[in-house]
Amino acid sequence: MTTWRIRDFHPSDLDGILHLWSAMTESGIEPVYSLSEVLASCQADFAVVAVHGEDIVGAAVGRAAHEQGWIVFLATLPEWRGRGIGTGLLAALEHRMAPLGLAKLSALMPDTETRIDAFLNRGFKDVKNLRFFERQIPVQRAELGPLAQLGGRVLPRNLWDNVAGMQSEKQLLERRLVLPLAEAELADEFGVVPPRAVVLFGPPGTGKTTFAKAIASRLEWPFVEVFPSRLAADSEGLAGALRRTFLEIAELEHAVVFLDEVEEIASRRAGDPPSPTQGVTNELLKIIPAFREQPGRLLVCATNFIRALDPAFLRHGRFDYVIPIGLPDAEARRAMWNRFIPAAVLAEVDVDVLVERTEGFSPADIEFAARSASQRALEKAVYSDGGQSSTNGRRGPTTEDYLEAVSETKTTVSEEVAAAFLEDIEELARV
Ligand SMILES: Nc1ncnc2c1ncn2[C@@H]1O[C@H](COP(=O)(O)OP(=O)(O)O)[C@@H](O)[C@H]1O
Ligand SMILES: [Mg+2]
Predict the structure, then answer these.
(1) Burial class for 382, CB neighbours closer than 10 Å (0-12, 13-18, 19+)
(2) What number does the ligand 1 atom closest to the CA of 325 have?
(3) What distance in angstroms lies between residue 117's CA and the mean position of ligand 2's atoms?
């Protein structure tokens, strides 16, 4: 080991850079920029290497962002450290970047990087009290095309917190679905096989769609809803269009796939000749096992009529869980009323009595009653004074407005449906 010299990077030096990268990570230093970023910068931005004969013993890579330049990689093989190679590489890199007229040259180095001499020698200042933040963007560039094609999107981050009440359902979904999917490595350590497909069932308006979206939001996975009614018009027919749609979904890195009113395409096989949806049901029965083989995605099927489903559809092996989403309990109704009543009048409204009077209401029913009370109160306030446009000092709906709206709201879920739901839980739920 005698002399080293510095020269520009050549495309044939990639192996040498890889070697430096592994030497660095093996010595316990986790570089800030990813390997693919560094390799891209070697080719497109600025890179210099230190060589001994043919061997690469060090490298520095930089890139410019407007007025600021960034050192994205600086490494020397361990056995070559302490010979000023780092300082030499930084000098050469700065020289190459000089024509850009940069105002500042910065470097982010891991805490474990102890060889700061190269930077200090070159006049860099060790800036204290800085923190490094980074966030993984949920959808990668290559997925934007397929995602748009599927009409999928990344939902706002707060949907999970916005689900009012429903503590026991929320806890169940959080533990059984979100935890193993979000913490895949931890789940694996414990031998937990992450869920791939679930059914949510319950009377209309209880929040099945809301929960499916909230799960996607919680995981930060794109939400893709599959609409059989739209696919039916496809020239390939519904079965073919479903197959194609799921092939497109397979191109995504992550997705929560939502199939609502699944009983419409997976109903009980009956009659001879078989019903026209039979081919579609069969297709779906084939699609699910294939879907299950791909990690990083979750199929959520929802139905208001779980008993109408083909028993083969619910058989073990297709769905990890069959989860009831029922009418909200008192606590959930309270949370919903607290959400729907305008903050300015919340303190004056008797929420207890509303919670009590809305037993048997679905979230959708409560939302409807709250909205109509607001509308009614607004109209009363504005028009009660012979059409004068003033609010007569009223600031919002009163308990009476709410009670009136509640008594006029027809609940979606009849007692019979509620009783049938309890039977369904008994017979078909799997949590
Ligand atoms: N836990 C909840 N908190 C607040 N609003 C809810 C909740 N669950 C449902 N909603 C509202 O009730 C309505 C019906 O919910 P939805 O999820 O569409 O029911 P489903 O899919 O079971 O028929 C939606 O407007 C939704 O925003
Ligand atoms: Mg729905």
Answers:
(1) middle
(2) 22
(3) 62
Q: Tell whether 79 and 183 lie within a shared domain.
A: no
- Residues 80-108 have a mean pLDDT of 93
Q: Is the CB of 363 under 6 A from ligand 1?
A: yes
What is the rounded CA–CA span in Å between residue 40 and residue 193? 36
Among 210, 355, 365, name the best residue to mutate to test ligand 1's pocket (greatest count of ligand atoms within 8 A of Cβ).
210
pLDDT band at 407 (very low <50, low <70, confident <90, very high): very high
CB of 165 closer than 6 A to ligand 1? yes
Domain boundary among 69, 88, 121: 121
**Using CA positions, which residue lies closest to atom 13 of ligand 1?**
364
Domain hosting 363: range is 330-412
Structurally, how many domains does the chain consist of?
A: 3
* Residue at 421 is within a domain: no
How many Cβ atoms from other residues are within 10 Å of residue 190's Cβ? 8
Q: Looking at residue 336, which CATH number applies to its domain?
A: 1.10.8.60
Mean pLDDT in residue range 197-203: 96
Task: Name every residue whose Cβ is closer than 8 Å to that of residue 288 and which is 6 or more positions away in sequence.
Answer: 197, 299, 318, 319
Q: What is the pLDDT of residues 323-345, one digit of tens each?
A: 999 999 898 899 999 999 999 99
Q: For residue range 110-162, list pLDDT tens digits in order.
A: 877 767 889 999 999 999 888 888 888 888 888 888 899 899 999 999 999 98
Strand partners of residue 50: 6, 58
User: Closest Cα to atom 12, ligand 1: which residue?
Assistant: 364
Ligand 2 (single-atom ion) residues, CB below 5 Å: 208-209
Q: Is residue 135 part of a domain?
A: no
Quick one: 320 and 337 in the same domain? no
